[in-house]
Amino acid sequence: MDKIQVLLSTYNGEMYLREQLESLEKQTFVQMHLFIRDDGSSEETHKILASELRMPVSINYGSNIGIQASFFELLNQASADVDYYAFCDQDDVWKPDKLSRAAMQLRAAPSNIPVMYCSRTQLVDKSLNHLGYWPPRPRKGASFANAVIENIAVGCTIVINRAARELIIKKTPNYNMIIMHDWWIYLCVSAFGTIIYDSEPTIKYRQHASNSIGGNSGILQKWNRKATSFKKNRKLKLLRKQAQEFYELYREELTMDKRETIEVFLSSNSSFSKRIKYSSNSKLYRQSIIDHYLFRLMYLLNMI
Q: Please, are residues 100 and 30 in contact by the beta-carbon 8 Å criterion?
């Protein structure tokens, strides 16, 4: 039976945490160990975590360092003798076969190369009523050329093998330079291994006011998120910062074509003529046609 360690970061999650823990207890056909890092929560969350759980669990009560650093710390401190590692948020509900479905597909891939599994989610409201499905299926497929400028991996659906964990923990990024831990994992594994995307939703992904990051349940919400992301990236150049951080950490290990992909992306903004050429011929792509051409326009206008 596959051994899976579930990495759960909690922070003031008392409203929905019990439901998530109950769904973890119902996981089928895997040998699961729950590893929780509490990111400086209030006493109510601590009471829930201290309650009796019907599964093996380890809890680390830490100071508030933020969601990205908390998940990286979990990954660094995770057990080295399990088969797979699954990332978990505190406010969702997992379907009973979530882990066994991921393990079955990961098992089919070579264990000596980094492999990441991720899936779609079923969007639900705070009372678990159905809203839709998110994200859209990746129209062009997962690849490094996509991961440089877009993330298709919802963090709480990610399950990785031991080789992927070793790849990620051997070089700790500057957290201020990366957009999100799930995007960083997608970027790293797509550069050196294999991505498995499952179109079948495996979790109920709860939408509520306290979500750190969530899906799009309507057209207005979708375009509001795009506008917010556009403004943030224009000011902070987040895609460029993350690509630069990845390049500095891994350039010696990249194949020649992947190294060139990053180098050209980072260096082609020095003049308008270079930006015109790059915007016309870039190998990088986003899944949506609109998003793909928006990326090219933003690059042309030196907003990335």
A: yes
Quote the pLDDT of residue 214: 53
pLDDT for residue 252: 97
Measured in whole angstroms, the distance separating CA 212 from the mean position of its chain's CA atoms is: 13
Q: Is 302 left (phi over 0), alpha (psi -120 to 50) or beta?
A: left
What's the burial of 138, exposed, middle or buried (CB within 10 Å: 0-12/13-18/19+)?
buried
pTM of the model: 0.93
Looking at the DSSP bridge assignments, the partners of residue 86 are 6, 159
First to last CA, the chain: 46
Query: Is pLDDT at 191 greater than 90 in this prediction?
Result: yes
Q: Distances in Å between the alpha carbon of 84 and those of 5, 100, 133, 173?
A: 6, 11, 26, 22
Neighbour tally for 222: CB within 10 Å:
13
